[in-house]
Amino acid sequence: MSTEMQIMELISTAGDSKAKAFEALKKVKEKDFEGARALINEARKIDIEAHRIQTELITQDLNEDVESPAMSLLMVHAQDHYMTSQLAKDLIEALIEVFDK
Protein backbone atom coordinates (compact mmCIF):
# COMPACT_ATOMS: atom_id res chain seq x y z
CA MET A 1 0.00 0.00 0.00
CA SER A 2 1.32 3.45 -0.84
CA THR A 3 2.25 5.92 1.87
CA GLU A 4 -0.54 8.24 0.75
CA MET A 5 -3.09 5.44 1.11
CA GLN A 6 -1.77 4.62 4.60
CA ILE A 7 -2.10 8.27 5.56
CA MET A 8 -5.67 8.43 4.24
CA GLU A 9 -6.48 5.25 6.15
CA LEU A 10 -5.11 6.85 9.34
CA ILE A 11 -7.29 9.93 8.79
CA SER A 12 -10.37 7.80 8.18
CA THR A 13 -9.77 5.48 11.12
CA ALA A 14 -9.09 8.35 13.52
CA GLY A 15 -12.27 10.04 12.30
CA ASP A 16 -14.28 6.87 12.97
CA SER A 17 -12.87 6.68 16.49
CA LYS A 18 -13.67 10.33 17.21
CA ALA A 19 -17.20 9.88 15.87
CA LYS A 20 -17.76 6.95 18.27
CA ALA A 21 -16.46 9.06 21.16
CA PHE A 22 -18.89 11.86 20.37
CA GLU A 23 -21.73 9.34 20.05
CA ALA A 24 -20.74 8.28 23.58
CA LEU A 25 -21.02 11.90 24.71
CA LYS A 26 -24.59 12.01 23.37
CA LYS A 27 -25.32 8.91 25.48
CA VAL A 28 -23.94 10.74 28.53
CA LYS A 29 -26.38 13.58 27.87
CA GLU A 30 -29.17 10.97 27.83
CA LYS A 31 -27.77 9.47 31.06
CA ASP A 32 -27.17 6.17 29.25
CA PHE A 33 -23.80 5.50 30.83
CA GLU A 34 -23.59 1.86 29.82
CA GLY A 35 -24.28 2.82 26.21
CA ALA A 36 -21.62 5.52 26.49
CA ARG A 37 -19.07 3.03 27.83
CA ALA A 38 -19.89 0.59 25.03
CA LEU A 39 -19.24 3.30 22.44
CA ILE A 40 -15.97 4.30 24.10
CA ASN A 41 -14.92 0.65 23.95
CA GLU A 42 -15.73 0.63 20.23
CA ALA A 43 -13.61 3.78 19.83
CA ARG A 44 -10.74 2.03 21.65
CA LYS A 45 -10.93 -0.93 19.25
CA ILE A 46 -10.83 1.42 16.28
CA ASP A 47 -7.85 3.20 17.88
CA ILE A 48 -5.88 -0.04 17.78
CA GLU A 49 -6.07 0.04 13.99
CA ALA A 50 -5.17 3.75 13.86
CA HIS A 51 -2.19 3.12 16.14
CA ARG A 52 -1.08 0.21 13.96
CA ILE A 53 -1.09 2.46 10.90
CA GLN A 54 0.76 5.23 12.72
CA THR A 55 3.38 2.76 13.95
CA GLU A 56 3.82 1.42 10.42
CA LEU A 57 4.41 4.93 9.10
CA ILE A 58 6.91 5.72 11.85
CA THR A 59 8.73 2.42 11.26
CA GLN A 60 9.00 3.21 7.56
CA ASP A 61 10.46 6.60 8.43
CA LEU A 62 13.07 5.03 10.71
CA ASN A 63 14.08 2.32 8.24
CA GLU A 64 17.52 3.27 6.96
CA ASP A 65 17.30 0.78 4.08
CA VAL A 66 14.58 2.71 2.28
CA GLU A 67 14.02 6.37 1.55
CA SER A 68 11.86 8.02 4.20
CA PRO A 69 8.47 9.20 3.06
CA ALA A 70 8.46 12.96 2.55
CA MET A 71 6.84 14.99 5.30
CA SER A 72 3.68 16.41 3.83
CA LEU A 73 0.73 18.50 4.85
CA LEU A 74 -1.36 15.33 4.47
CA MET A 75 0.83 13.53 7.04
CA VAL A 76 0.52 16.47 9.45
CA HIS A 77 -3.23 16.43 8.91
CA ALA A 78 -3.36 12.69 9.69
CA GLN A 79 -1.38 13.15 12.89
CA ASP A 80 -3.69 15.99 13.90
CA HIS A 81 -6.75 13.79 13.34
CA TYR A 82 -5.20 10.93 15.29
CA MET A 83 -4.16 13.02 18.29
CA THR A 84 -7.49 14.89 18.36
CA SER A 85 -9.39 11.61 18.36
CA GLN A 86 -7.26 10.37 21.25
CA LEU A 87 -7.90 13.54 23.24
CA ALA A 88 -11.65 13.43 22.56
CA LYS A 89 -11.87 9.80 23.62
CA ASP A 90 -9.90 10.37 26.82
CA LEU A 91 -11.86 13.49 27.76
CA ILE A 92 -15.26 11.92 27.03
CA GLU A 93 -14.27 8.81 28.97
CA ALA A 94 -13.50 11.03 31.97
CA LEU A 95 -16.82 12.84 31.54
CA ILE A 96 -18.65 9.50 31.66
CA GLU A 97 -17.10 8.81 35.04
CA VAL A 98 -17.83 12.32 36.34
CA PHE A 99 -21.48 12.30 35.32
CA ASP A 100 -22.09 8.70 36.38
CA LYS A 101 -21.37 9.55 40.03
What does this protein look like?
The protein has helices at residues 3-29, 33-62, 73-99. The chain has one domain (3-99): Phosphotransferase system, lactose/cellobiose-type IIA subunit (Methane Monooxygenase Hydroxylase, Chain G, domain 1, Up-down Bundle). The chain is mainly α and 101 residues long. The model has no long low-confidence stretch (mean pLDDT 92). α1 runs antiparallel to α2 (33-62) and α2 (33-62) runs antiparallel to α3 (73-99). It is elongated, with a radius of gyration of 16 Å. The chain has 3 helices and no strands.
Give, in order, the helices and strands. Answer: HHH
Share of β-strand residues: under 5%
Low-confidence stretches: none
The count of β-strands is: 0
The CATH class label is Mainly Alpha
And the CATH topology?
A: Methane Monooxygenase Hydroxylase, Chain G, domain 1
Helical amount: over 70%
Derived structural class: mainly alpha
- Whole-number mean pLDDT: 92
CATH architecture designation: Up-down Bundle
GO molecular function: metal ion binding; transferase activity
Cofactor: Mg(2+)
Pfam families: PTS_IIA
Keywords: Magnesium, Metal-binding, Phosphotransferase system, Sugar transport, Transferase, Transport
